[in-house]
Amino acid sequence: MSDLVVRLRALPTAAISDALDRAGIEGALHGVTPLSNDFRAVGPAFTVRYAAVDEAGAGTVGDFLDDVPSDAVIVIDNDGRTDVTVWGGIMTEVAAHRGIAGTVINGVCRDVSASLTQNYPLFSRGRFMRTGKDRVRLVAVDEPVTVSGIEIRPGVCADADGVVVVPAAEAERITESAERIERVESDIVAAARAGSTLRESRVHFGYHTLQTRSQT
Fold it and tell me: What does pTM read for this prediction?
């Protein structure tokens, strides 16, 4: 595990999102939420894309799991569909056994109890029991996908607040910025508890400059 992944795991997605905003980088996946507020996943993205089955075609299942590195976050693009699932109990059990970091789905999942029992982090647009077999087909693995208008690039950070994507080329800068934001917010809370007003604390620690896009 890289030092950068360790540092990102220590940060909430809120701070990472603020750091992305400050850098002028879009990275938040709107509408994708965790099945449990306790779930957290950080790691390089392993991407998967499904498409609807046409009248002449047949559906395919996702045996791609055998190829996923153990520290990766699987990102599945099912075009945001909420009427069929592309992830269920077998996938959860195998992914948890292999030590995969988690799964993010632009779509829905099922067999939710397996995810909660295994403490396997799942993030999706909802839950629905109907299978994707013969309804969707696997069309791409480990190729760029787009979710909520965001092109998925390594790495992915997800927690109770949702999912953000950090471009690999900007990961060090975003991590440093997010760490600074976390320190400033902790300082503001400490000052307020010590008797300072919220307004005074925010001005003193330069909070508002962290909420605007950097000009450098």
Answer: 0.89
Query: Both tokens of residue 99?
Result: 């030590």
CA-to-CA distance for 58 and 122, rounded, in angstroms? 27
Quick one: which of 169, 154, 157, 174 has its CA closest to 23?
Answer: 174
CB of 121 closer than 8 Å to CB of 103: yes
Per-residue pLDDT of 101-135, as tens digits, reads 999 999 999 999 999 999 999 999 999 999 998 89
28-165 topology per CATH: Glucose Oxidase; domain 1 (3.50.30)
* Greatest Cα pair distance in the chain: 70
Decide: helix, strand or coil at residue 109: strand
Q: Are 104 and 32 in contact (CB under 8 A)?
A: yes
Query: Residue 44 in contact with residue 8, Cβ under 8 Å?
Result: no
Query: Are residues 45 and 75 in contact, defined by beta-carbon separation less than 8 angstroms?
Result: yes
- The string of pLDDT tens digits covering residues 5-50 is 899 999 999 999 999 999 999 999 999 999 999 999 999 999 999 9
